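A quick aside before the break. I want you to see a complete sequence-to-structure record at least once, exactly as it would be stored in a machine-readable document. Don't worry about memorizing anything.
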Amino acid sequence: MEKTLQNILGEIRRTNAPLSPDALDRIIRARNREVAGPVRYVAKKKLLPFYQEAKEHRPEQWRTWSVSPTEEALLVRTLQVKPRRTASGVATVTVLTKPWPCSSACLYCPNDVRMPKSYLHDEPACQRAERNWFDPYLQVTARLRTLHQMGHVTDKVELIVLGGTWSDYPEAYQIWYMHELFRALNDTGCETAVERESETRRKQYRDAGIACERDDLANWAAEAQARVTAGDASYNETVRSLYACGTRADSNGWAAAAQWQTATFSQLEALQRENESAEHRCVGLVVETRPDAVTPKRLATLRRLGCTKLQMGIQSLDERILAANHRGIGVDRMQQAFELARIFGFKTHAHFMTNLLGATPESDAADYRRMVEHPAFKPDEIKLYPCALVDGTGLVAHWRDGSWRPYTEQELVNLLAEDVLVTPPFTRISRMIRDISAHDIMTGNKKVNLRQLVDLELAKRAQPVQEIRSREIAFGAAANDELSLSEIAYETTNTREVFLQWTTPDNRIAGFLRLSMPNADYVGARVADLPIDAGEAMIREVHVYGRVAGLHQGGENAQHRGLGRTLIERACDIARENGYTAINVISAIGTRGYYRKQGFTDNGLYQQRSL
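That is the input. The structure line, written in tokens, reads:
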């Protein structure tokens, strides 16, 4: 391994640049040919962990390699695994809450009793969660360790909390869960502290008799799962007996764990204050919910917890489709949820599904267009994915009687391409598939490269794509004098929004800001329930792209060049010109210090600057 690293460093010193994948592969293949034996001796994914381990635990050996800071940066670039993971400017860490009864029973939704509603235990994030007893501390520290070994900087972290409807969980569990997320971020960097705490956690779960191994969990849940799949028991009653109250003799461990899975707001707030200056800061915190669970009181609680973005399961805006699929939420309630989320400053991330029961490609295209164009909705982000048929769901009977069929691949690709083309420049399509394993899908799309197929179709059509993800500068670079600042204004039912963006001459996006100016009448009619007053504008998001850089260090691409500061100043000017006297920002815990430097002061659930 050391010889391979030396060969790679030699080539980096010769070229003074990171190696291309082909150049790296040639060096690795040449080294493997030198080593006798049938087993591959060197693999790319093992090289960076080997280098990091030597630097941290064998410093005398590492010093003999004489690696300069510049050479180390180029080496990490060369050996980094899945570089797009942090190309958007932050390291994303996804965690799952424990299984819990769901307040809905949608026709298409999986009923895996080992998982929160709608998730399957073979999905990658779900596997990680189950191995760690769904414990937030263990999930975060394990994921950050993996990202570090893959060569990613993890100083700025966006936490995504999945698990169905967040507000269905007891409030004490919600506070504890966030408390442990922040404790994990604050502890990361001190390997001894993390390992000591992690071992204590593991012992607690083992002593409670809670399994975490795949085969043990399969045996534990087999009988209960069979009853749910056969329709002899509901997901909710089964999960309640397994996790919520531990009525089964072998499920008492979860009831016992619930006794210590609690925390207070004062304890959480202490960790949040610590995270403001920690080495690993939370720059975004996302939870999942349902539109009918969005209320002013719950949104205020989410802000206290540190949340900045809501993922909402919309699925469709067609009342006929919603009813056929037992969604149980009307379009009017969805509109209220979007209005409240915007007025509270949250970024809105809508889940939208194609190919539901009763839909056609034509109706799906019209439905999607309505979501991105109607002033009641216009989400900031979208997860756009096709319905997949999973055993144990109510949709199976409709497939068997012929009343539902999956779209063909070409129908699906054409539909998604059309959806991308009508997506406005202020909206980002974050995903086009769910991470459901092919063997769990009875019929429907099983291709993990669906988005690539859509991109190929878009390339054939040669029409301009405005959607954000397609325009992200990612690994590209642009000098400040090559960037231009433009503004896109649009109306919603309760605000006037302005999307400010830095773009290159070819329309690649290097950074953006979402400014929201609430309608005075809307605020005045609901002022008792809202955390803002009339005359206050809101910055809902500031994002500058580029590879993640360490805090206070110069980064690559667009980060750390004053682009965010310029966006903020322009947003303040726009709000002032429109008669607003103050501007709030829905800052994440780890960005509070940054906004204080921009003239904002702490003000309840937000930070505020007088105009």
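Two observations worth writing down. Confidence is low (pLDDT under 50) at residues 548-560. DSSP finds 24 helices and 16 strands in the chain. We'll return to this after the break.
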